[in-house]
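Chapter review: from sequence to fold.
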Amino acid sequence: MPDLPPISAIVPAHTRFDTLSKSLSAILACDPPPDELIVHVDGGAEEIVRQVRAAFPAVKILCSDKLLGPGGSRNALVEAAANEWVANFDEDSYPETGGYFGRLKALIARFPEAAMFSAASNDQEKKETMIQKVAIPSGCGCVFRRSWVQRTGGFVPLPIGYCMEEVDMGLRLLAEGGQVFMDPLLRVVHDKIPPEHISAELSAGVFRNTVLFPFLRFPVWLWPLGAWAVMRRLFSCLARGWVDGLADGLSTTPAHLVNHLSYRRTIPGPKVLRWFMLRWKPQHVIPADEVRVLMESTYKR
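The token string follows.
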């Protein structure tokens, strides 16, 4: 039997102990469980810290008075993780089955070249039958090599990470030569009901990030691709009636770009285009059931 790689599980948290408690319970109930579980409580939420300590004494807790956002929290968690493989969850996501980490260990054995594994978090991904190389990992359920994330420079710390965090990491990993595999049988539950209307603050943040991503990563000659993505976002919001916050997003975007100028590291154009091609058409690798057989024969629960 090959050596079982130790795995750290991490969860950034902010305000919701009800969903966080559900997620931590599900992670700890897995068989096998992760080798360590670390929570980062963001923005000085002392009540969350007290609740986690009381209910989950085995969980390691980090906290910050300053609001780091989900990306900043993940940077702190990655730095604190004791193991090379780090399983990432949100405070409202958790493994769908108790065999999550057993399957993950089998994936690591089958794909030693992987920089990251992306779990299936929506119905479309769970209907797939093939493990695929993908451009964008799932934000609420991915597993990465600590050394690969550190090689990219980590996540950009943003109070709102939507439309920036996972797309940015996916592009930078690909640019460094890393591969991301999506496994439809490595599944997470994202315990969140999509709202009919998003808040003005969230809408503004999403718009700013849609502009920030190409600004930070695309060479100037590919900025028209970024402008196309921004226009798609704008028309999508208008079509859904999500107009609250758009004016604020437009007016605050220049300052948002200036405030994050230090994170600008452009990716060579051919690599950006290759990432776009993979985004539009993921590459099928092997049937997902092949890893199920490996898991059942080698990493028995």
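Two observations follow directly from the output. The chain has two domains: 7-193+282-298, 200-267. Residues 7-193+282-298 form a domain with the Spore Coat Polysaccharide Biosynthesis Protein SpsA; Chain A fold (CATH 3.90.550.10).
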